[in-house]
Amino acid sequence: MMKKMQSIVLLLWALTSQAQQAEYWLTKADKSVLFQKQPEKLSFVTTTNTLPSIYVDDTKTFQQMDGFGYTLTGGSAQLLAAMKPTERAKLLKEIFATDQNNIGVSYLRISIGASDLSDHVFTYNDLPAGQTDPTLTKFTLAEEKKELIPVLKEILAIAPSLKILGSPWTPPAWMKTNAASKGGSLKPEFYDVYAGYLVKYIQEMQKEGIRIDAMTVQNEPLHPGNNPSLLMPQDEQAAFIKKSLGPVFRKAKIATKILIYDHNADRPDYPISILNDPEARQYIDGSAFHLYGGSVESLRDVHEAHPDKNLYFTEQWIGAPANFGGDLMWHLKNLVIGAPRNWCKTVLEWNLAADTQQKPYTEGGCTACLGALTIGETIVRNPAYYIIAHASKFVRPNSVRIASNVTMSLSNVAFKTPDGKTVLIVINESDKPMTFNVRHKNKQIMPTLEGKSVATFVW
After folding, report:
1. Where do the Glycosyl hydrolase family 30 TIM-barrel domain residues begin and end (predicted)?
2. What is the pLDDT of residue 19?
């Protein structure tokens, strides 16, 4: 009898020790816990209760993810380049490496020429007033070779598979109707020249060892009030793509993906109308979005209208000074959770770094854009750092979104990673702690998540 009891105990111990366990990382809105791995592991068990349940179903799959990250603005690169080399190397490793306590950012957006978070306006072919250069003989990446390209090379040495998206804020002023960096439209007679300018950019960056995986045609084409900027309504963008950009890319054998729109979720008609044009759509990989207007759920309209085309979330700012708890909850719900649940392959925050006064920026640029990092006498990690970290460290490129239901105030999104792990990101939007089930393959864990907090579960 004693031997039989010992055998049963040993069997139960073996079964328990082999039970699948979940690890999790936690951030609380009150900053008492900031992206910390929790000491306890949660074992999946078979049990029955009446708690609310999140069902994770990896038999239902959706889009493949390209990555999570930030915009490396010209200003961000300038601040990083000014750091002591050893300190910069340490910081870049923290952001882009995947081991230990690093957050593994896997996707970056950069501006093609200056953005409004550069310290001055420039393009790669600036000329005195009245001059033109249709053969692009004066094209130069000299401005980028000062800071952006050296910093990018350091980043790629850490994360060689990192993908890069390029976005122009303006063509050279001599190509525009108002001959200025702010506003105006691209002159039709310069469509082919501008397409050649973008080809030259991609080719010259490649010579520096920097591959541009994708390119949006124009940042915020319906916001000509920024500096720099360009007005490009959908009919003009469609015409530019089908008449010039697509054919010129094809002739030059450019593999960089062409993305349209790159503006707010309140105008899904803009990308849909371009994709409805068969001449234009043949050159287009997908559409890019921001969320300064509209609802993230509107992105689903674009997917449903053209399910063969991809969606990307490419920008959202946090205003200074941050409201840490509010920003954490809103951005996680709408970006990290909401954008993938509505078919986006990327989630990018704007922007990587600024100084203590949110500089640098252009005259007429954003004066209150809080970086994921504040670079001053010390390095301050702001809300966007933790928002992206909760996904980027675990949801590696080529992970696939899988099905999960939303229950109570527990917004969530789930992924299957290339190495076979399951990742579930959950926020508790309520003010009170919630105990709930995470059910997967007929077993479950029962975590408790405090109010206004986020957890990433990995098993």
Report:
1. 66-395
2. 81
Same domain, 116 and 148: yes
User: Residues, the chain, total?
Assistant: 459
Strand pairing report for 437-440 and 67-71:
unpaired
Choose the final residue of a domain: 397, 414, 434.
Answer: 397
CA-CA distance, 91 to 86, in Å (whole number)?
9
pLDDT in tens, 356-403: 999 999 999 999 999 999 999 999 999 999 999 999 999 999 999 999
Same domain, 299 and 367: yes
Residue type, 168: P
Residue 348 belongs to domain spanning: 67-397
Lowest mean pLDDT among 14-23, 365-374, 405-414, 434-443: 14-23
Give Cα separations from 82 to 86, 97, 374 (angstroms): 11, 21, 13
Q: Cα(103)–Cα(388) distance, rounded to whole angstroms?
A: 8
Residue with tokens 């975590």: 447
Whole-prediction pTM: 0.95
Sign (positive or negative) of CA dihedral 195, 201, 204, 206: negative
